[in-house]
Amino acid sequence: MSTFGIDDLPVRDELRGKSPYGAPQLDVPVRLNTNENPYPLPEPLVERIAERVREAARDLNRYPDRNAVELRTRLAAYLTETGGYPVGPENVWAANGSNEVIQQLLQTFGGPGRTALGFEPSYSMHSLIARGTGTGWISGPRAEDFSLDVPAAERAIAEHRPDVVFITSPNNPTGTAVPPEAVLALFEAAQAAKPSLVVLDEAYIEFSHGDSLLPLLEGRPNLVVSRTMSKAFGAAGLRLGYLAAHPAVVDAVQLVRLPYHLSAVNQATALAALEFSDTLLGYVERLKSERDRLAAELGALGYEVTPSDANFVQFGRFTDAHEAWRSILDRGVLVRDNGVPGWLRVTAGTPAENDAFLEAARALKKDHP
Ligand code: PMP
After folding, report:
1. Does ligand 1 come within 6 angstroms of the Cβ of 33?
2. Residue 53 CB less than 6 A away from ligand 1
3. Which CATH superfamily is domain 23-42+279-367 in?
4. pLDDT tens-digit map of 6-42
5. Ligand 1 midpoint to CA 97 (Å)
6. What is the average pLDDT across 106-118?
7. What is the complex's ipTM, to 2 decimals?
8. Is the domain covering 43-275 a CATH 3.30.2350.10 domain?
9. Of 22, 38, 40, 122, which is least packed with CB atoms within 10 Å of its CB?
10. Is there a contact between 250 and 217 (Cβ–Cβ < 8 Å)?
């Protein structure tokens, strides 16, 4: 067997010895580890997707609409209806998942010689995409309770003068929402220090008790709100993320996007899903109440729970979180060990899946009171 590996190749120095993103994809009865929506798409939507894709298939000999104008118009309408702030297609850009949106933003506003800062623990792909785009990464602080400590965050921004600042609200993996005053204070700090681009990652906003901070875009061309259809729209397999920002930001990301990056099949599928946004947002309401039930029952079992505005709950504390993860897995339930010492994260599933998880959590508490 050859022992030849990545590090024997002439790869970039900053990739040596690193691991890829790797949430386990295990075949277990209850999978509550990647913040997916547990509800399959409703059958009428599946039919509509088939119809739209059939139409798109007739033109697959041609490249797709490079600017995805129809899709951006529909996404803008969705944001205008639900976000409390009017946006048009010129304010919206879409890509293959919000991960690609973030990658395009870092290719445009980060890159070699530049830095990005996020407040950790937070979404691990922010730092991984920074690395992939040659952007230096700065880990900013959070308070003990995982909320944003605004003065400490302002100090980190002033000290490091990053080119890009990530604010994730609700935050993954903690579920913590960031209040508008805090976002504004950090935006001001970032402008005073550099000025820099502030990316407000609202991947989970539809699950929040509070509203989207989309209205903060008014008069702030250096602010970007990023969104996804992977969570609330129940379409993680689709790969469709988008952003809302000043039209100049949309123009700027054109400089790095690959031509025809969004396939015609992908655009057709996303358009079909947007026709069903009301039905899909109905599932969000169910998931919000299941999320609240999970939090309440975990609390009643004696776990500590971080207040959540997302479709998941962070719970603990464990002396050995990985061992706790393993014993929950041994009971057929896959949750997530994000490497936050003492804590695990469970995604809200169907009521039956959540019951199975709570049963495993109860048994674990009995074994390790
Ligand atoms: N942002 C946050 C905070 C996330 O948790 C995720 C997915 N886990 C994403 C962005 C990326 O989602 P996608 O690429 O599926 O749109």
Report:
1. no
2. no
3. Aspartate Aminotransferase, domain 1 (3.90.1150.10)
4. 889 999 988 888 888 777 788 899 999 999 999 999 9
5. 7
6. 98
7. 0.99
8. no
9. 22
10. no
